[in-house]
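Q: Here's a chain of 291 amino acids. Please give me its 3D structure as tokens.
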Amino acid sequence: MAERQMPNLYSVFDGPCSCPSCWNDETEMPELEFESGNEESLERMMYEAVGNSLSPTIPTRNSELEQLNCVAGPSSLPSSEEPVDVNTESVHADDSLQILEDEQTIREIWVVGHSYIHWAEKKALQMGMENLGCDPSQIKVSWGGIRGMRWRALKPFLGEAADHCPTPFGIIIHLGGNDVGRKSNLGLISWIKEDLRWLSEYYPDTILIFSSIVLRPCWSQGAKWRGRRINNVLQRFLWREKGCMYHNYSLEGEQLDLFRDDGVHLSNEGNCIFVSNLRQMVELCLIKGGM
């Protein structure tokens, strides 16, 4: 079965298409600063800016898979030892072709978010884990990390993908940390719920995984309380909406060595842990999807 070719589409806006399969990995999104409430300016600049690509997968190295105890390896095609009735041979042949086609369908999982996703992709590539431990003949992990991304940019970022790209098997979102303290908790939670409901309507059969907001060392105690509150509220919300939250507990606590000196971005060790967390999110996505 020929490998699926994603459309090379361009949006009506200036610059490349925001379709995930068309994002350009060679250019980076600049760090963005916006005043709270200036959502129209944010969306306009996000469309004008060039995001990272959801890059194609590459074969993973077995040594790295063993190191991270990765799962979701290749599965074998079902077989039957029962004889085929001569009168129904054509029917059995059609069934076999359908089974083969279903088994060879590549299911795509999008991993989107701010700079944590941007740097996790680069670390995963260094580790030979760009596909996060999945068999590339069955699962394609596509990356969309934009540095400086804030929550209100998610909907326009994925909106074009909803119109032009095939439905993903799963979407993993790590976003919201850049909004803590810049918007009231009630307002931010309202935004997030609204957009997650929108995603559920656009992709009713897609598994949605929300990666919890990481509490940053540079935050005040008040900001950390707000981050925890958002995570707790969204966990209950996603459970009701049949989504799922993954808690990044391994990045919490006073573990300053997991962060850079700025107290915002993850260090090399922190990125290794986050890549492992993303691998577990993919595994969770596959389990919820019945694979």
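Q: Can you summarize the key feature?
A: The chain has eight helices and five strands.
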